[in-house]
Here is the input.
Amino acid sequence: QQQVKQSPQSLIVQKGGISIINCAYENTAFDYFPWYQQFPGKGPALLIAIRPDVSEKKEGRFTISFNKSAKQFSLHIMDSQPGDSATYFCAAGSGGYQKVTFGTGTKLQVIP
Amino acid sequence: NAGVTQTPKFQVLKTGQSMTLQCAQDMNHEYMSWYRQDPGMGLRLIHYSVGAGITDQGEVPNGYNVSRSTTEDFPLRLLSAAPSQTSVYFCASSYGTSSNQPQHFGDGTRLSIL
Here is the structure.
């Protein structure tokens, strides 16, 4: 049972464009929603995270939008750059990190 | 600061062989975990530990054993390797188990079972 559904599986965006990745969850006990960025041959690294009491969080070109009633959250990458090309994972957690559930990942390619 | 170090980076095994994937962290983190990453499946939690001497099962624990004798080390043992265990394995650690503590991942061990 996939508790966190992520889409799209892959995404190609022109340099300077907006990349949007969506996630939906089922378990209402989730109270922490991080996004991880993974480059080829490397482990995932925390990019940005949000709690459900906030509808939006922005860090530089990266923004998380959160819709608690719809049980959905999304990552927006503004002014996408070739260096943003990576795989992005959404995740949801409750009760601490030992209960983090990851989405299936989105491979983003930003073309010049 | 090395962070989370995983060894080996690559390994090929034959079905039925056993091996240990090593994970060490130098950040004095309480929480350590093992994930496997498979295409289209994301990261799935195998086992985790909230401190030395304390381990518990994650989502996909079958075929794997762990132990935590020190804060720094958290090895993952494959008892009798099977082709279904072909995957990329990631070890992660965090300072605590509260949800505002980010997980730090190693660079993975790529394991093939023939």
The two ends of chain A are 38 Å apart (CA to CA). Residues 55 and 66 of chain A are 5 Å apart (CA to CA). Chain A has a mean pLDDT of 92.
